[in-house]
Each structure stands twice: as structure tokens, then as C-alpha cells.
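In this supplementary section we document a worked example of the pipeline. Step one takes a protein sequence of length 521 as its only input; no multiple sequence alignment statistics are reported here. Step two produces a three-dimensional model, which step three serialises into C-alpha cells for compact storage. The input and output of this example are shown verbatim.
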Amino acid sequence: LATSVDKGECMGGSTLSLLHDKTFNYTGDSQAQELCLYLTKAASVPYFEILEKWIYRGIINDPYSEFMVEEHELQKEKIQEDYNDKYWDQRYTVVQQQIPSFLQKMADKILSTGKYLNVVRECGRDVTCPVAKEVIYTLKERAYVEQIEKAYNYASKVLLDFLMEEKELVAHLRSIKHYFLMDQGDFFVHFMDLTEEELKKPVDDIITTRLEALLELALRMSTANTDPFKDDLKIDLMPHDLITQLLRVLAIETKQEKAIISADPTELTLSGLEAFSFDYIVKWPLSLIINRKALTRYQMLFRHMFYCKHVERQLCNVWISNKTAKQFSLHSAKWFAGAFTLRQRMLNFVQNIQYYMMFEVMEPTWHILEKNLKLASNIDDVLSHHTSFLDNCLKDCMLTNPELLKIFSKLMSVCVMFTNCMQRFTQSMKLDNEMDRFTLEHGTMLGPPTEEERAEETAKKKLTSKLLAEHADNLHLTSGFEATINKFDSNFSTHLLDLLDKLSVYSTNDCEHSMLNIIYR
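The serialised model returned by step three reads:
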């Protein structure tokens, strides 16, 4: 035995494995087996003392590195800062060669049991398993299994109850959903009304404290004021746009994308709208679930939907500013009818995409998450369900498919360029209209207008409408308005058909049937 231990350079768990195997091998020789059993029991005492401390209290006291669980020095605070930090996976790991062969099947549960208790202990709670019993070596594995199972069940319940009840995990997730998945409608109307002008500026010109103040105002003015965690919501101006962020996460390495990823953020001039996102302050131990990796995924979903909402608002603003078209002549009206039809098609597309993402992807997936969290028996289940929720949302919102995302981005760009073009055109109409309006205003200090003044004003309005219509005709002829609108129409239709074709292919090949809903819309 001593020679075998020496030749195998065994220590700790590997020594117990060798002794355990030898004990079994001497089944026909009672004296030799009894001797081996005695030696194994004696050798296992210090190892089982470390094991008991781990599974009953979540503490490792292993000065000679003999135990099956190894501790690594990682700071839990970094979970909030580093996307790639894997505190939960890497703080404690199993050392395979130190697992005694008779505990091999229970290795994962032993690791999880101590990890669960360790989290609660790091929150300042002293936890001790009430069903703790001394672990003694025996040839009957069932004795170990029962003791470890009891310790595991206790540790799972303690941590789960601690996170769910005392730390209100579900309430925090619901709060994040309100803001990042945009289900708090009136808050976003207030917020976008307040910040629209500020977010149009280049990102370097935006005063973050001003945005923070406007966010605070929007929160207080809306139903979000009742949210107890609203103060954890913060403004974050990202150094890159959504596409670049997604390429970084997906690690796509084409030449063009490498250039985008490696570009200095200062080289890319972002507007506030392109750089804007929310961030959320998460404290330990909730940061185990809502870590930086999860928050980054929430941010990607938010930025995607926020930009869609911005495009929708721009298209609605075009509709408001185009009311002057009622005064145009029949000749120019037919060209404007084409522009208005295109605007409505764009608006229908953007609204349908938003409806699909919010009510056919996020809401059903969220309800599944809530249901699964109620049934979860341990923290690993919670982590798994939350990750699945975010993965499904990203996938069904086309954010994990670069090809679909690029086509969608082109569609959004066409919509934005169209709204800018229409706003410039109607702005020139408004300038003439404003000049005429000043001549039609009646001095209120002189009292109500007389019949003659009313008749004169009506005549002037008719003349103004006629001049405005003629101006529209001239502007239409000189600016190539018809050709411009036709080009927008052609580009929009091409990209839209391309998107629908690709969606059809991906939904069929990858069995992603939820994406078919976009086509049916």
C-alpha cells in the first residue's frame, strides 16, 4: 500500500481512492480487507472534516490542497463591471484527481452545496446545516448519498429563499423588464419627449447630468414612480452602436467587421440616439443572476427597441407636418399621395415589428420565465432559466443573426432618411406659410374682427392656399421630389422583400417558427 501511494504520488482524495479500491479488491480476504478498511477510515478523517465544513457551512479549510474543491481569488464586485467575469463558475472548481472514487457521483452536488452556503455567508449570514451529521467512511455508498443530499437540499432552499424573498429577485427582474424591455408605456412617452432634442446631438456634446435629470423627471411624472427600484436605473452612453456591440458579443470576424470592431470609438461619430442605453445598479448577491453578461443582453434588446420607437416617432412627426398638403393642387397632390402611402407602409412595418417583439416574443417568454422561477429548486435552475429567457428574446428579435440584423438596419436607415427628406421639404413650405400667417393675424387688442375684416381674411387665406399650392408645384418640379420618393419606395421595398425572404429561409431551416409571424403580419 505504501509503495502504491508513493509510486502514484498520491495525496488527499487520490490516496483515499487508492485505499478504497484496495479495500474492495480484498473482498475474498477478510483480514486484508479489515486492515485496509481500518487504514481508509483513519486516512479519511481529516478529508471528511474538510468535507463537513464545506457542505454544512460553505467554508474551505484546506491548507495542503488535498480537497476536491479548490478556491480561486475572485472579487464578486467585478460581476457588475466585467462582461467575461465568470465568478459563479470559476470562484470554486472541482479538482478531478482529488475526488475520492466513492464520492465521484456526488462531486457536482458537493460543489454546489458549499457554493450556495458560501454566497449566503458572504452576505453576512452565519449558516449551519441543521441536519449536519459526522461523515464516516463506509463501504456502503448510500450513507454518503443521503447525507450529501440532505445538505444539498438545505443549502438550495436557504439561498433560493434568501434571493427570492429577502433580496426580491423577481421584483428586480420585473423592474428591469419595465425599463429595458419597454413595457412602461407612459414613462417612455415622457422620457422621449423630454430628451428628444438632447439625444439628437453628437454623443460628445451631450451633458450626461442633464440626461440623468430628465430621466429622474420622467420617472417621477409617470407610473414608474411607484417602482421601489427606480433609483437603480441609470443612463449609459455607449462608445459604439448596436451593430458593433452585437458583433463584439457574437465574435464575428470578417474583414469589414474586424475593421469596425477595431476602430477607435472617437473615429465613429455617434449621435446620442445611437449611443444611448440604460444601465442598472445590481448589488451582491443579485449580481450572480443579473450579472454584466445578462445586463449587456438587456441593453442590446433595449437599444434595438428604442431605435425602433424613435423611427416610429419620426414617421408620426412626418404625418403631423404633412397636414399642409391638404392645400396643394390636384397636380402636386398625386405625387404627395405617393409619399404619404410610403410613409404609411413604413409606419405599418415599424409598428408591426414592435408589436411582434413586445407581444409575440418578450411577453410570452417572460411569462414562461416567471413560471419556471416559481418551480426552480436551486440557484443553478434560476441562472439557467434567466439565460434561456434572454437568449430566446435575442434570437427571436433577430439580434443573433448578423445577416437579418444588417437588412433590418438598412430598412431603418431608409425610413430615417425618408423622414429627414420629408421634414426638409415641409419645412420650406412652413416658412412661406409663416410669412403669410403674420399678415392674416388680427390684433386682439382692437377687439373682435368686423364682417369686412372677416371677408378680407377669408380672401387672403384662399390666396395663401393658392400660392402655397403653386409653390409646392414649383418645388416639386425643381427638387425632383417625385424621383426621390420613387427611389425611397424602391429601396424600402427591396430591403423589405429581402428581409421577408431571409426570414422565411431561416424559420424553415432552423425551425424558428416564431419568426414566421413577421411574414404573416
